Amino acid sequence: MRPRVKKACRITLTALLCLFLAVLLTAVGLLLYGKVNLPGWFAAPAKGEIHRDVVYKTVDGRALHMDIYQPGRRLFTQSPAVFYYHGGSWNSGDKELDDDDVVKAVLDYGLTIVSVEYRLTDDSTVYPAFLDDCADAIRFVAAHAAEYGVDKNRFCAFGASAGGQISLMMALAGTDYGSDEELAGTDFHIKCGVALCAPTDFLNLDVYEEEEDRKEAAELLQALFGGTVEELPGAYRDASPINHIHKKAPPLFMAHGTKDDIVPIAQAASFVEAAEKAGMAVEYHPVENANHKFKAAGGLAVEPSVDEVLKDMTEFLIWKLIL
After folding, report:
1. What distance in Å separates the CA atoms of residue 64 and residue 62, rounded to the nearest whole number?
2. Burial class (CB in 10 A: 0-12, 13-18, 19+), 203
C-alpha cells in the first residue's frame, strides 16, 4: 500500500504546483500588461466614488440614468465592470442599491458596479424597450471606458428575477438590441453572466402547476409584450433566453430556489440542460427549500446556504471576470 500512497502524494503535490504556477503566471501576465494597480492591493478598504444619475441615453425626451459605483481600492488600472439589472416583473423597481445589497460585495474585489435604469412596462412601453435600454447602457460605458476607468473587455451582466432574464439576454444576444443612434456604432462583449431565479422561456407556462398562477403569468407577459402569445409568438420567442443558447456564449452562473413559486425552478433546469447540451459553460446551483428570494420556505432548511451560494458566485466572478 505504501507505494500507492507515495504515488498519490506525488500526484497531489504536482497538482498543487500546477495550480500555484497557473496563478503566478496569471499575476505576472496581468502585471506585464498593466492590468494590476499594485499599490491598491496593499491599501486599506475604503468607500469608492459614486457617479449618480449619469445620463446614458434619451428616449422621447426622457433621460435614462445609471449609477456607477467605483471600488474604494482600485486593484486594477482598468476595473472590470458588473452591470446590475434590478428585478420587479419588468414593471416596477429601480436602480437604487441598498447598503447591504449583495451585488455591492464585489466592490471589495476591485470591480465597478453599473446599476442601470431601464424603461418599465406600461400602456405605451413594451418589449423590446427594456432590452434596448440595457444594451445601450453597456454601449455607453464601453464608449466612456477611459473616463470611468473600466476595462471594456471585462464586462459582466448580473441580475435577479426579471433582472436575471435581462442579464441572460445581454450575455447571449445583447448586441442584437439597442435603439440609440449615437451609440449604435459602439460594440461590446460580455465576458460572463450571473442570473438568479431568472425566467428563461416565455413560451412555456406549463411549469406553473396551478391554473391561477399560469393565468397571472400570462397577464404579466401580455402587458410586457403588448399582446398575447397567440398574437406575438415571435416576440415571446425572441425574448426567451433559452432560444439564444449557443456554444460560444460566455460562461454563466445561475442559482434558483427549488420552492420558487414566482418563477418555477423548471425554467432554470430546462435552460441549463439545453445549454450544457450545446456545449455552454454553466455553473448551476439549485437551492433546496428556497423561495424566490432565497428565503426558507415552509420552515425547511435551505441547502446550500445563501452565504455558500454567494461565496461560489464570488469565486465565479474572480475566475471568469477578473483573472
Report:
1. 6
2. middle
Query: Are 86 and 120 a contacting pair, CB within 8 Å?
Result: no
* Locus of grid cell 416583473: 89
| Spatial CA neighbour of 134 closest among 200, 51, 222, 193 | 193
What are 284's three cell numbers? 448551476
**Distance of alpha carbon 68 from its chain centroid, rounded?**
16
Q: Show the low-confidence residues of the chain (pLDDT under 70).
A: 1-46, 100
Main-chain phi, psi angles of 113, to 5 degrees = -110, 130
| 103 and 97 Cβ atoms separated by less than 8 Å | yes
Among 253, 264, 255, CA closest to 294:
255
User: Structure pTM?
Assistant: 0.87
pLDDT in the model for residue 93? 97
**Core vs surface per residue 38-47: b (16+ CB within 10 A) or e:** eebeeeeeee
Among 33, 24, 46, 35, smallest CA distance to 76 is for 35
At 190 the three-state DSSP class reads strand
- Span 32-46, pLDDT tens digits: 344 665 444 445 555
β-pair type (62-69, 50-59):
antiparallel
Residue type at position 68: I
pLDDT of residue 23: 59
CA distance 37 to 34: 8
Distance CA 8, CA 294 (A): 40
Q: Give the DSSP H/E element, type plus range, for residue 81.
A: strand 79-85
Please report the pLDDT score of residue 102 as a whole number. 78
